Amino acid sequence: MFLQIKDLAFCYYRSKDYAIKNFNLEIEQGEIISILGESGSGKSTVLRLLSGLETPTSGIIRINNQIMTDDRHFVLPEKRGIGMVFQDYALFPHMTVAENIQFGLKKQTKRDKQQRVDEVLDLVNMAKLKKRYPHELSGGQQQRVALARTLAPKPSLLLLDEPFSNLDADLQIKIRNELKEIIKKTGITSIFVTHDREDSRAIADRIITMRDGAAYEWESICTTRKLEDKRVEVLTP
C-alpha cells in the first residue's frame, strides 16, 4: 500500500469541533483518488495534513512505507516529496513559464534543469509558450503551467486542491480530460479535492466522499461504506 492514513484527527486552533475525525484511507501506487464534499466538509484539510502544512491532533500518515506523522514523528513539508497544485495556481507573475517551472528544481545542474523543464512542458503541451508570462496565458494554460511546475521535481504524491474552480464550464470539461491523461502518463499517485461530482467521475479511479470530517469510500458497484463505522450509504452513479 503506497499511502495509509489511520485514525486521523485534527482540530483548528481555538475551535471546539474537529475538522477531521477518525479519517482512514489506503491508496495504491498510481491511483487517482478524488475527495468529494461540500465546503467545510474537511476535504482541503486532509490535503494540508498530508502535505505537512498542518499537524494532526492524532493519527498516522504513512507514505511509501515511511511515517510522515504519528505521536512521535513529524516530517517537514519540504522533505515529504509531495507536490501540490493550489486553487489560484500561485504562479510568480514576474517569471516566465520556464522560470516558474525551474524555480522548484534544486541541486541540479543548469543543463539538467533546462532538460527537465522541457520534459514537463512537452508533457502539458506548453513548450511553445515557455517564454510567456502568466498574465499572457489563459486560465487553462496557467493551470497546466502550475501542474508542470509541481511535476518537475518528480514528487511521489500529487495533491490538487479544487483544480477547476477558476475555469468556466466549457474549459473545465476540456482541461479535466487533459489532466487525467497527463497524470496517468506520469504514473504519480494523486489526490484531488472537489465539490463537483462530475469532475470526480471524469478523473478519479475512486471517489471518497466527506461529511463533517469523516470519509466514505465510493466503489464501482456504487456502494459506499463509512470507513471504520457501521453506517452504509448508497450512491447513484
Gross morphology is: globular
Total DSSP E strands:
12
Any low-confidence stretches, pLDDT <50, length ≥5?
A: 219-237
Spatial sequence of strands, sheet with the most strands: 6-7-8-3-9-10-11-12
Give helix and strand order, one letter per element, not per position: EEEHEEEHHHEHEHEEEE
Rounded radius of gyration (Å): 18 Å
Task: Report the span from N to C terminus.
Answer: 27 Å
Main beta sheet: strand number and arrangement? 8 strands, mixed
Provide the helix percentage: 25-40%
Please identify the structural class as seen in this structure.
alpha/beta
Q: State the helix count.
A: 6
Instruction: Report the portion of residues in β strands.
Output: 25-35%
Mean pLDDT, to the nearest integer, reads 86
Please describe what this structure looks like:
Helices cover 28% and strands 27% of the residues. The chain has 6 helices and 12 strands. With 237 residues, the chain is an alpha/beta fold. Strand 4 and strand 5 form a beta hairpin. Residues 3-237 form the ABC transporter domain. InterPro entries: AAA+_ATPase (IPR003593), ABC_SmlMolc_Importer (IPR050093), ABC_transporter-like_ATP-bd (IPR003439), ABC_transporter-like_CS (IPR017871), ABC_transpr_FbpC (IPR015853), P-loop_NTPase (IPR027417). Keywords: ATP-binding, Cell membrane, Ion transport, Iron, Iron transport, Membrane, Nucleotide-binding, Transport. GO terms for molecular function: ATP binding. It holds the Pfam family ABC_tran.
